[in-house]
Fold this sequence. Notes:
This protein has 2 domains: 100 residues, Orthogonal Bundle (Rna Polymerase Sigma Factor, Chain: A), CATH 1.10.1740; 67 residues, Winged helix-like DNA-binding domain superfamily/Winged helix DNA-binding domain (Arc Repressor Mutant, subunit A), CATH 1.10.10.10. The longest helix is centred in the N-terminal third of the chain and has 36 residues. By secondary structure, the protein is mostly helical. Helix 1 packs antiparallel against helix 2 and helix 7 packs across helix 8. 21% of the residues are buried. The protein is built from 8 helices and no strands.
Amino acid sequence: xxxxxxVVVARAEPFREFDEFYAANYQGLCLQLLVYLGxxxxxxxxxxxxxxxxxxxxxxxxxxxxxxxxxxxxxWNLAIHRFRRQGTVxxxxxxxxxxxxxxxxxxxxxxIAALATLPPNHRRAVVLHHMVQLSIAEIAxxxxxxEGTVKSWLSRxxxxxxxxxxxxx
Length: 169
């Protein structure tokens, strides 16, 4: 009987570690991707999918120095894929002459539209730095690029956003 209990406890331990990891990282990652995707449900779906993939490989990923970086990368890759697919769907719907209902807040809609015009690297840098409050060093580490590259992306992204938003105003 005692052996059975120890087996159950041993099986539950990795899941406890994963539960703590999930609780510590889920909300922050959702916020990052909410700003990037512009839709809370999409962001939650993407983050949930990334955590599901991490759970399947938790014994390996849990041993990493920074398992959050792995989940973040997977979530961002999924978000980029969905963002591209969303553009394809929008173009299809426009060709079908279906009416697209604008978002309720014109400022938010303008910002999301302006962000959508940026190249993906610039958009990620702007979102991560200005909306998620990551430092340039943290973004460089996450994106696996030099800090100068992140500074360049931010500079170009801000300039393009300012031009877009000035043009709309």
